[in-house]
Amino acid sequence: PKTRKSAILYLSMTDGSAMPLELEACPPTILNVKTFENFESRLFVGVPLVVQTDVIHATRSVVTWFADGIPIAFDSPCYTPTDADIGKFLSVLIVPIRKGHGGKGHEEAYRFKLPVEPLPFMPLVSPL
To answer: Three-class SS of residue 101?
Structure first.
């Protein structure tokens, strides 16, 4: 048997009908989202990005990465921009999940403020 942590309440409408309203107790929730720097940092090809989440009432979070709104990586806390991402804006959709709850209605989305850039040329410096 499936255990539900919700209750159905009925709101009385002005026309005399009743509208059901399902209230969920303890939904999976994202408490905190962190990245190495922040969502305003410069992004470079070949430099990995990592998103960490703290959740409550969830076993984990699913992170989906997007480039200009197109999905590019699913269920991965990290992504390394490629040449194909240059000039595009990256974003993530984070869904807290647990057994029996797919996180619907509790998602959070974040967009990096700057587009992906090529990695600047760095000359090799050799010791004298």
So the answer is: strand
